[in-house]
Amino acid sequence: MGYAPPPLGRPRGKCLADPALYRSPRPFFLWLDSPAECPDDALGFDFDSATFTHVGERVSFEVLLSSFGLESDRELSRLGTMVHALDIGGLSVPEASGFEAMLGGARGRLKDDDALLAEIGTVLDSLYAHFSTHKRP
Question: What domain of life does the UniProt record list for this protein's source (predicted)?
Fold first, then answer.
């Protein structure tokens, strides 16, 4: 299984949310400069013709939730709302602006994309825990 972000250099925040959903003990992620470099046996994310990409009004993160039957998880759905707003706009959650600021700082501080993914995964885990204890009105 692999990961292929859009050909815009380093992974951006909303692209990092997609692989953070994977909790398999053996996933690996390939950071590609172009979708054309995506191996045939890899699962691509967030580019035209990728296995998981935008469908209709849903961003890739929401497509992943739906594809794996995770839409009923309230915390993941709330993360999906945040990712959606940061990716294409729309209704958001109050935490989105702080998450976006943290992403910018992490991208500036961490030059290794795997380290960036690990850090963002930890932040998303923390937001998930926050959402589980702070119920939305």
Answer: Bacteria
Residue 100 CA: distances (Å) to CA of 30, 40, 42, 125, 127: 23, 32, 28, 15, 13
More confident call, 130 vs 11: 130
**CA 119 – CA 3 distance, rounded (Å):** 17
Would you kindly state where each structural domain of the chain is located, as residue ranges?
13-133
> Concatenated DSSP letters for the chain?
------SSSSPPHHHHHHHHT---SS------SSGGG--TTS--BSSTT-SB--BTTB-HHHHHHHHTT-TT-HHHHHHHHHHHHHHH-SS--TTHHHHHHHHHHHHHH---HHHHHHHHHHHHHHHHHHHHHS---
Give yes or no for residue 1 having a pLDDT over 50.
no
Lowest average pLDDT, out of 47-61, 65-79, 87-101, goes to 47-61
Instruction: Measure the CA–CA gap between 10 and 18, rounded to whole angstroms.
Output: 15
Q: In this predicted structure, what is the pLDDT of residue 6? A: 40
Give the gyration radius of the chain's Cα atoms: 14
